Amino acid sequence: MSTPLADRIRPQALSEMVGQQHLLGPGALLGRIAQGGSIPNMIFYGPSGVGKTTAARIIARAAGKKLIRLNGTTASTGDIKGVIAGLGGFDAMGGVLLYLDEIQYLNKKQQQTLLEFIEDGSITLIASTTENPYFYVYNAILSRSTVFEFKPVEAAEVERCLERVLGILREEDPAVEAEEGVLAHIAASCGGDVRKAVNALELSYLGAAATEGGGVRRITLADAKAVSQRSAMRYDREGDQHYDILSALQKSIRGSDADAGLHYLARLLEAGDLLSPCRRLLVIAAEDIGMAYPMAMAIVKACVDSALQLGLPEARIPLAEAVVLLATSPKSNASYLAIDAALADVRAGKAGEIPRCLQNKHYDGADAKVKGQFYRYPHEFPGHWVEQQYLPDGLVGTVYYRPGENKTEQAARAYWEGIKGRRG
Questions:
Q1: Model-level pTM?
Q2: Residue 185 host element (H or E)
Q3: Which candidate in 12, 53, 70, 300 could, as Cys together with 75 as Cys, close a disulfide (CB 3.0–4.6 Å)?
Q4: Is residue 423 over pLDDT 60?
Q5: In sequence order, what DSSP letters do the residues of 107-158 get, joined into one string?
Q6: Residues 6+ apart with CB under 8 A from 103
Q7: Where are the beta strands (DSSP E) in 157-206?
Q8: Residue 342 above 70 pLDDT?
Q9: Which of residues 92 and 1 earns the better pLDDT score?
């Protein structure tokens, strides 16, 4: 079985890697650590195909320790115990460097098994993960490790890698040619994933048909577009990218940027995720628009209902309407802050007995010094309001809701201050 092209062209030195200049560029910390020879426990975090495994392998190879490789997707507790059992061997006298790929798939007990030996230096750990290590890696291991974040590789750097790959293909097959724009298109559409870009170029090469008479294998732009048409989508409905996109959607709308909101909505819909943006748009209507434009909730609910009934691709139309409406609406988080403040008091035990006038009972026990409910029905008074106590005794005077500085809430504030005779 032939080795995949992505593995054949894998860099053998950090200087050959593309991207990650913030970690491996001149004077960058990780590059200096790798050259120093004394390797600390490290966790490499970032999306797939950006060089985490390659960097770990290169650093591990130069460490001068016995190298053991495990993958969290297949490693068992027995495999981990086998690593520990081998620590007393002659070949491990200088210590063991454990390269653990996809550490997030090990459960807490498996990670704890390594802890004692990481702490005493018997094992040096280099782990990689595509998920946020602060959520998926045991805290005790995190506290003994340095986390390095790898980022998607810029298109220009990916294109530089693809030029090298095309050179290798030409060495193996001199008849291969690539149309203008092929490398640039693949580099731009791979979403910063070098492995995905290399695989797309290899697939385009394998599918290249020989032209009549000339025997040339031409990699066409049309083929490159066909194999990479959805490559730029970095999305996992249960991973960091899912929540990052939803977070970006809400923050863009909160920041009144309709264009950015539509961009992140498009990324969710292109990945086939309809339910998540529907739920998030309803949250935004309540949390970020709130009382500044109360009708936004009703309109967004209508858009969401329409989208769910229509399904994709038509659902994109009412959801786009909802994004534009929310982004261009006045903003208020006054209700959001008010309920959180009220919840904080309740959780702190600031409850107290409900005032007698509000209780749902119409009789008093024998111990009541003053009998009677004394509830005053507001609709019987001018302006449908009358002064009486509503909060428990211990919370009288507490203010949770503070009207936002927008026309709707200030109008309501002025109205009730007039009714209550407290114009200030």
A1: 0.60
A2: helix 182-189
A3: 70
A4: no
A5: -HHHHHHHHHHHHTTSEEEEEEESS-HHHHS-HHHHHTSEEEE--PPPHHHH
A6: 43, 72, 111, 127, 128, 129, 133, 136, 137
A7: 176-178
A8: yes
A9: 92
